[in-house]
Amino acid sequence: PPNSWALTVLSSCNSNTKKLKNAGQWDPIAAFKLSNIVKQEKPDAIICHGNRAIRICLKSAKGRAPIIAVAHNYKNKKFDKCDAIFCITKKLVEKMLAIGIPEKSIFHIPNMVTFSSPPKRPALRTPPTIGAFGRFVDKKGFDIYIEALSILQNEGVLFHALLGGDGPTKERLDSQIKQAKLTDKITLTSWITNKEAFFRSIDVFVLPSKQEAFGIVLIEAMN
């Protein structure tokens, strides 16, 4: 997209970059423009991340180049139409096999981070600060996070906690915090725009998701 953060990164790599604005996976204008780009560039393969990219590419580029989908989660309904699947976890490999994707078309390529030196674990604050953030929806499990903090408080463990994000369950989570008498322990923030600053401000990061194909935020927190 014209406003993508990736443009800055790609420009530093001297890569040939094309911008393509789209209004969604059913955008016929974007599909038409992408079709022209594929004709001009004649790519050896097209790697797609997410439903929108996969569906648009299947419309405009199928037959002109192999379509490779990257499976970040279990939601996509068009994996069987792609020529190959890159899966970031072994569970996703199992899922692809279960829905009938041929084994020869599935490749396990996990998310990874290369460290120039081992990360140094800093000394804990007194009391330690615990943090979590994400979309406030049921599957992210922030109700479990609050319940766990309530257990710590009842057992007399000293801590401070941060919970960043927003979403449809915000009022419910706020009510849970009040009922657990944690208003002086948990600080609710809005969306986290500076993740590095957030990670520097906490001692323990929590990912309480009830379901997660792979939480990239875990890699970000470790880094």
Report on the structure:
- By secondary structure, the chain is of the alpha/beta class.
- Helices cover 35% and strands 16% of the residues.
- Strands 1-2-3-4 form a 4-stranded parallel beta sheet, with helices on one face.
- Strand 3 (84-87), helix 4 and strand 4 (106-108) form a beta-alpha-beta unit.
- The protein starts with 5 loop residues before the first helix and ends with a helix.
- Average residue-wise pLDDT: 89
Query: Roughly what fraction of the amino acids lie in strands?
Result: 15-25%
Characterize the largest beta sheet: strand count, sense, and whether it forms a barrel. 4 strands, parallel
What would you call the shape?
Answer: elongated
Low-pLDDT ranges: none
What is the CA-based Rg, rounded?
21 Å
Q: Structural class, from secondary structure content? A: alpha/beta
Q: Record the strand order, biggest sheet.
A: 1-2-3-4
What is the β-strand count? Answer: 8
**Run of helices and strands:** HHEHEEHEEHEHEHEH
The level of helicity is 25-40%
End-to-end Cα distance, whole Å, is 27 Å
Secondary structure tally, helices: 8
In short:
By secondary structure, this protein is α/β, with parallel strands linked by helices. The strands form 2 sheets. A 4-stranded parallel β-sheet has the order 1-2-3-4, with helices on one face. A 4-stranded parallel β-sheet has the order 7-6-5-8, with helices on one face.
Task: Give a topology summary.
Elements: H1 6-12, H2 28-41, E1 46-49, H3 50-60, E2 67-71, E3 84-87, H4 90-98, E4 106-108, E5 129-135, H5 142-154, E6 160-166, H6 170-179, E7 186-189, H7 195-200, E8 204-205, H8 216-222
Parallel strand pairs: 1-2, 2-3, 3-4, 5-6, 5-8, 6-7
Helix pairs in contact: 2-3
